[in-house]
Amino acid sequence: MTRRWSIARQLFALQVLVVTLLVAVCTTGAVLLARRDARNAAIGQVKAVAETVAHSPEVVTALRSEDPTTTLQPYAEAARAATETDFIVVMAPDRTRYTHPTTSLIGLPFAGTVDEALAGGVVVEEYPGSLGDSWRTVVPVRDGSGAIVGLVAVGIRTTAIDRALAAQFPAVASGTGAALLLAAAGAWALSRRLRRQTHGLGPAEMTRMYEYYDAVLHSVREGLVVAGRDGRVELINDEARRLLGVAADDPELPPEVADLIAERRTMVDEPILAGDRTLVASRRFTHDSRGSVLTLRDHTELRQLTGELDSVRGLTEALRAQAHEAANRLHTVLTLVELGRPEEAIRLGTEELALAQQLTDQVVGAVREPALAALLLGKSAQAAERGVELTIDPSSQVNEAPLPSRDLLTVVGNLVDNALEAVTSAGPGTPRRVRVLVRQEEDEVLVEVGDTGPGLTAEQAASAFRRGWSTKPGPGRGVGLSLVRQITERYGGRYAIDSAPGAGAVLTVRLPVPA
Question: Which residues form the PAS domain (predicted)?
């Protein structure tokens, strides 16, 4: 199948055709103008010569003589040669020629119009005379009293005018050729540039590509954001608008995504927060670095499930450790019974049971929200596994469901996890304690988590809730506290960090309770 012409080739052909037509029209106009100018110049020349001859006293005197031809013929031929005209005819008012380049025609009537000249005017006409087609002028010759005593006709053949015009043809042809070559070179350069920009595609191919592109853009299940070199959004598809919460008539992106585009760096599967969603972003630049394409995938539910899975995994490991410890204590109790020391066996068994029951009673009594109570019990077991003492502040008090469980669990769970990581990384000899306070007040829920970790500097505290910030290196970190900040800002609440290097940290979050 023969491939159709590309847009660049079609444009080149169209430009060459248009330029050729324009040059042809312009050249034709120039030739016509030059021919008119040559004709007007010839008319002006013959008129001037005719009037000069007619006003010559020698001509008037010769016309009164008995043989005007003897005097006028040499005079007329000399004037004709000097003025480069084709004929100068001096005649009587009755048209009888006294002079003529062809001597055999002398004495014969003049062929042409003379009526207007006999009336005292000037005749200007193109006439097929005895020498061929010519432009001629006929003027009257007057004597001293003003009477018309003769006529003077001067002419130039049209073939002479055409020869003079043909002498200008090389210059016109050179200009025309130069214009065509220059226009063709410009069209060729423009077509090459257009070919590079369109990759040699034809109109039908570009139409199909646009249709496919538009269909893919609106059907793909990933968000696409195309930005220019200056960071301005050039294109955003429907899925990206949905994920980012951007209206169709509002090109402004959330601050997190706008900052990400402004960083101008390549990324692969990097988690970001945008509104209520946790997205995974990948970004790559075009081959000429003139723009970039940002792809977004919604991992909100996956992140939540991952967090819940991590909590369950931590709780499972804690329960496994507790089961291991319980088995050791059970063996100890049985050994004490076998050794005949039942009192010590009973005391050892009841002490562990009392401590576990005390923690459960404290948590369940203070926190009536079942999911939050279960979370705190699981974190207590996880802390014990890590060798951390986690205590629930006695003033904690939460009624059932003051806020959506998912948001409350996200805030408390991430704050506790952050505190456990902080005290775990503390140096030897440092007490490992975490204190948790969750209290429902009149119009807000107060969450306060303190730890005895290494603490934070003022700069670190200011950046702790920013996306991607973490005291530990590695991908995927810096998300927990960002989620806390996101939920807090969504509720219109407040968050703060009270910390100093070596003095631990206290993270406080206040979440207003919706009416």
Answer: 209-250
CATH 3.30.565.10 fits 303-512, yes or no: yes
Owner of token pair 């008119």: 36
Spans of all domains in the chain: 7-166, 221-298, 303-512
Write out the H or E segment, with its range, that includes residue 284.
Answer: strand 277-285
| 297's tokens | 């995938």
Has residue 163 got a pLDDT over 80? no
The total of other beta-carbon atoms located within 10 Å of residue 260's CB is 25
pLDDT greater than 50 at residue 340: yes
Would you state the structure tokens that stand for residue 104, as one six-digit string?
């055999």
Q: Which residues pair with 298 in a beta bridge?
A: 279
Helix axes 370-385, 342-366, angle to 10 degrees: 140
- CB neighbours of 145 closer than 8 A, spacing ≥ 6? none
Say which residue the tokens 């459960």 belong to.
Answer: 360
C-alpha 59/C-alpha 79 separation (Å) is 12
Q: How far apart are CA 170 and CA 386, in angstroms?
A: 101
Q: Is 72:173 a contact under the CB 8 Å cutoff?
A: no
Are 225 and 233 contacting, i.e. CB atoms less than 8 angstroms apart?
A: yes
- The Cα–Cα gap between 409 and 375 comes to 7
Q: What percent of the chain has pLDDT over 90?
A: 8
Which residue is associated with the tokens 């004597």? 143
pLDDT of residue 212: 64
Question: Strand order in 267-274's β-sheet?
Answer: 233-236, 223-228, 291-298, 277-285, 267-274
> Per CATH, which fold does 221-298 belong to?
Beta-Lactamase (3.30.450)
- Distance between CA atoms of 491 and 407, rounded to whole angstroms? 10
d(CA 398, CA 412): 13
Selecting from 3.30.70.2190, 3.30.450.20, 3.40.50.720, 3.40.50.300, what CATH number does the domain 7-166 have? Answer: 3.30.450.20
pLDDT at residue 1 in the model: 42
The conformational region for residue 344 under phi > 0 = left, psi -120 to 50 = alpha, else beta, is: alpha
Q: Do domains 7-166 and 221-298 have the same CATH topology?
A: yes
Q: 50 by DSSP, 3-state: which?
A: helix
Start-to-end CA distance of the chain, whole Å, equals 71
At 285, is the secondary structure helix, strand, or coil?
A: strand
The Cα–Cα gap between 236 and 214 comes to 12
| DSSP structure string for 135-179 | EEEEEEEE-TTS-EEEEEEEEEEHHHHHHHHHTTHHHHHHHHHHH
| C-alpha closest to that of 140 among 251, 36, 63, 228 | 63
Please say whether the beta carbons of 91 and 76 come within 8 A. no
- For residue range 177-220, what is the model confidence (pLDDT) as tens digits? 777 777 777 777 777 776 666 666 666 666 666 666 666 666 67
Q: Where are the beta strands (DSSP E) in 219-354?
A: 223-228, 233-236, 267-274, 277-285, 291-298
Provide the pairing of β-strand 148-157 with 444-451.
unpaired
